[in-house]
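#lab-general

N.A. 3:47 PM
ok so I finally got the sequence cleaned up, no stray characters, all 359 residues accounted for. can someone with queue access submit it? mine expired

B.Y. 3:52 PM
send it over

N.A. 3:53 PM
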Amino acid sequence: MGRKGENIFYRKDGRWEARYVKDELKKGKYRYGYVYGKSYMEVKLKRNEILLNLEKMKEEKLRGKNTLNYYIDNWLMSIRFLVKTSTYAHYYTIVNKHIRPYLGEVEIKVIKPKTIEKFMNQKFEEGLSTKSIQDMIVVLKQILSYANISIKFRLPKLQKKEIKILSKNEIHLLEKEIMKRKSYAAYGILLSLYTGVRIGEVCALTWKDIDLNKRVIKIEHTMLRIMDLEKEDKTKVIIEEPKTEHSKREIPINQLLYDVLVKIKPKNRNTHFLTGTKEYIEPRTYYNQYQKILKDIGIKRYGFHSLRHTFATRCIEIGMDPKTLSEILGHSDVKVTLSLYVHPTNSLKSVYLEKLSTH
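B.Y. 4:20 PM
back already:
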């Protein structure tokens, strides 16, 4: 027998049963839950407690839909298979390490330019670089755009770093040491110095990418370490296509490099360039090996990317046109080449200025 309108019943087994609606599957269709007890009052109290908790959960869920976290989750799902694995891992790291902790629980409607300004200031106080904060703001803009929120605010202005290039004497010392060591890893530095390839590209390079008959090197992959999304406290090494289509390119091999490559090529072309075996050297390990070589010969500390800057500057110095250089470096725009990678030396500037007096 049940109490009218309460859905509480006395069962044949001597227990009391109370029924309640857990959720609505579709209009007019419900999913029910049941609680049991020794008395009417016991099951009524149990059911009321459950209903109260369900109401709280419903309110929290509704509030959650209004927070940035809700849109972060949906945005990440929307781009999961539209971007490269490394790009997604980069976004995922930015979101969970920086954006969520500060803005995740904030209601989307109260996010204003001042909110973002405070976020940026907080990150500056934490000692993060302008470039890192710029990356965060770019991601945040994409999330807000996904939520159909348009907020105008300025990106922090990047301060141009001083680009370092090796001097002619340092290049000479480095080449001498490379020839002395006669190792695949050392020759990788020479290759970067004469082609401008990035560290991830040389780490991913295999001997089948090098065509000595046509005298070209095909750059079709890059290697990098990213967060393992299945084990968030771990990272993993991946080999994937370069960051842009323009980064896929063929680079001619000059005579100096050709003579070296002919001597060291292994019998098995299905091997990594830096090892001559099927084992690879990852960028972080290779960077450390590069720094050790610089230290051993007394050259000051240069980033591996300085080899690329040095290559580009030397090409301009010998008269290569920016368009050709841009294609060798794998840039989509000549402006990038000119603004980031070409650094005329004072001696070159003097040469050009002296020419004025002859005209």
